[in-house]
Amino acid sequence: MTKRDYRINSTGDGLSITFDAMASPCEILLDSHDVTLAQKIATLACQEVWRIEDKFSRYNNHGLCAQINQSQGLSVDIDLETFQLLQFANQCYQLSDGLFDLTAGVLRRAWRFDGSDHIAKQSQIDALLPLVDWQKVSFDANSITLPSGMELDFGGIGKEYAVDRVILLIKHLTTTATLVNLGGDLAATGPRQHQQNWLVGIEHPGLDALNNQLIVSLQQGALATSGDAKRFLLRDGIRYSHILNAKTGWPMTNAARSVTVAAPQCTQAGLLATLALLQGSDAESFLAEQTIANQPLKYWLIR
Predict the structure, then answer these.
(1) Distance CA 22, CA 110 (A)
(2) Half-sphere exposure of 227 toward its Cβ, with a 13 Å CA cutoff?
(3) CB-hemisphere CA count at 13 Å for 31?
(4) Tens of pLDDT along 126-161?
(5) Which DSSP string do the residues of 269-296 spell out, in sequence order?
(6) Which of these, 17, 58, 227, 285, could form a disulfide with 28 (CB 3.0-4.6 Å)?
């Protein structure tokens, strides 16, 4: 199966659409055996996810993100969608007190979270920190200006945004219950037939994935997970998470291994999960203080 292809399979009690996007295996589950409907959903959903990936991925040299990053301090025209994503990124920055910063992606030049023991040197980090400062980015509804040498990285919000977009498109197409899972960030349009729940497995980091999953029941709404299950460094018995403190350039200390949050939208769930990781040892108290629609936040935290 190539990057720009999808496959429809029977799951016994419905159909699944599998494809690859955003460096992740993706799946859409349909509570129906209607292959024609599945093909319509697959075409609609895959095209939208790949469109978002092409536009906002820093790895696509021909997308808008690359155009902004290669602008050398010059203004770049943007559309409403990009403006709204930048506004959301600004909200993330403000709510995290500067710890979540869309310009922090340049720190990857010093850090490679490949499971090895190669820790970045302070001199490498110090050379990059002047390029990390969201407040230096200027944008409005029509354009964005990024100082020369700085970069934007939409990776922290891209998948969650894509999930919400696909859910919205599917709801306009059909009332059939559907679950969209993009690399572990997911949402459901509604409960399955006879009000049955969707059963979702959350991987426990560091353990056998098949035999150590937390099973969550979901009727509708979204789940997003942030953690270091696959991206980390290990040296002298110390595990370094890929969640970086944008202020220091170093991994967050005492960060949870995994945080999963339930919310009406995937972008909302992803923001809260990431903010929790950025709290370090205070993640539990941060999550306990959060509410949605005056109800306590539902979350699952693994240390």
Answers:
(1) 22
(2) 22
(3) 20
(4) 999 999 999 999 999 999 999 999 999 998 899 999
(5) HHHHHHHHHTTGGGHHHHHHH-EETTEE
(6) 17
